[in-house]
User: Which sequence fits this backbone?
């Protein structure tokens, strides 16, 4: 998948000169935005991992270690398909959660979260060591000069910022929320719902953490004059209705987000974005769940590398969990309890490594297959590297593998620990979605 350095250089040059403005929501692609896209592109090059198996192997080792300890504390009495409410002592069942969740002083050391990400998004530290900004006002009425105290005011600041919320609130975004680099949006300690308006957008930016939000019923919204940076205002076209959109951006971590019922996608990652981890999310009631790479003609997405780990794909989902193009995608220890068409799909030759997931097929005999390939004959897609390792298939689910094995993991025999089997996926993702954290108590 890594390819030669010359091929990567060609991909990156193409990215720098072929940004499609309309897909970016940009009405006028001015000199400021051109410079911003070129800077983001340079960061993407630095974030790209020539040997992605090193990253997947490291994550596998940590999953094995964390769950091995956690299983001493927890017994699995029920299947988790219905996300039954848990009222016992704090349990952190995967390595990301184990880093911070069961520490009762988490609110006094919020920055600890920045050291907990694994996978391809491992460089994301968000607003680490920046100031803490507290959202006090749920309104969103000033797209050009946002009101202090609002979420929009905070995400556009120049310097690193760790954004928290004074109390629970429902925020209706009247325009897409464009998030600047070096930001953390941390919803812990409040019930923060983004609902009924536009969604969150990361475009030509770097180093962002989004944690602990509930995002639902996002709609396509009108564009207009909109501040997209602390020092720039531009014209935006109508946004599509994605809950979270990542465009030409790198080093992003999406964690413990509850997502459902949006007009377009729940999470879209496109246009040369890379270095991204999506973890511990709970997704329900949606058709096109996740799209990684928007075009079969844009090979700039060959540098895309995404980790999808410990998520629960729950009730009311139809397809694209995820749908991939071009890049390398590590799908690890997720719990797939519902889909109507298929779970994992793609086109344009992506590499997909599926490890330790649980796939429970629907009762429809025509939808038992986990995988789905588009726009290619078997003679073509048979060369795509789609591999399944230690997955658990239930109710007749099947995964059609293709391509040659991805390669041996770079550990000596004594340290080569296999990822947890798919039978453990429901435990690893048990506490997916936004958590009900209370200050002074473990989450």
Assistant:
């Amino acid at each position: 998948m890594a390819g030669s350095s010359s091929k990567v250089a060609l991909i990156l040059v193409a990215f720098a000169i072929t940004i499609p403005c309309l897909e970016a929501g940009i009405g006028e692609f001015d000199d400021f935005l051109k410079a911003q896209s070129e800077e983001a592109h340079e960061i993407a090059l630095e974030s790209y991992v020539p040997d992605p198996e090193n990253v997947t192997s490291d994550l596998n080792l940590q999953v094995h270690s964390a769950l091995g300890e956690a299983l001493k504390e927890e017994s699995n009495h029920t299947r988790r398909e219905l996300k039954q409410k848990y009222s016992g002592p704090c349990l952190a069942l995967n390595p990301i959660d184990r880093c911070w969740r069961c520490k009762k002083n988490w609110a006094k050391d919020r920055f600890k979260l920045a050291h907990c990400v694994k996978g391809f998004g491992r460089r994301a530290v968000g607003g680490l060591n920046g100031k803490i900004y507290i959202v006090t006002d749920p309104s969103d009425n000033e797209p050009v000069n946002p009101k202090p105290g609002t979420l929009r005011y905070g995400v556009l600041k120049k310097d690193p910022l760790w954004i928290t919320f004074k109390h629970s609130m429902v925020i209706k975004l009247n325009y897409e929320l464009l998030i600047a680099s070096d930001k953390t949006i941390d919803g812990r300690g409040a019930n923060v719902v983004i609902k009924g308006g536009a969604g969150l957008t990361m475009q030509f930016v770097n180093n962002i953490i989004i944690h602990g939000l509930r995002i639902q019923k996002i709609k396509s919204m009108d564009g207009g004059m909109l501040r997209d940076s602390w020092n720039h205002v531009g014209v935006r076209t109508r946004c599509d209705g994605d809950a979270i959109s990542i465009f030409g951006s790198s080093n992003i971590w999406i964690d413990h987000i509850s997502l459902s019922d949006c007009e377009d996608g729940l999470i879209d990652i496109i246009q040369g974005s890379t270095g991204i981890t999506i973890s511990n999310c709970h997704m329900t009631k949606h058709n096109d769940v996740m799209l990684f790479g928007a075009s079969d003609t844009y090979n700039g997405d060959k540098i895309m590398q995404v980790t999808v780990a410990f998520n629960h794909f729950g009730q009311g989902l139809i397809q694209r969990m995820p749908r991939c193009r071009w890049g390398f995608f590590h799908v690890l220890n997720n719990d797939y309890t519902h889909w109507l068409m298929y779970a994992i799909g793609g086109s344009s030759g992506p590499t997909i490594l599926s490890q330790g997931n649980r796939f429970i097929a629907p009762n429809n005999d025509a939808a038992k297959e986990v995988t789905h390939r588009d726009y290619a004959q078997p003679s073509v897609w048979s060369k795509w590297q789609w591999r399944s390792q230690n997955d658990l298939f239930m109710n007749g689910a099947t995964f059609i593998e293709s391509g040659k094995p991805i390669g041996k993991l770079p550990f000596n025999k004594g340290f080569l620990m296999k990822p947890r089997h798919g039978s453990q996926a429901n435990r690893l993702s048990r506490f997916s979605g936004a958590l009900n954290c209370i200050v002074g108590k473990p989450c």
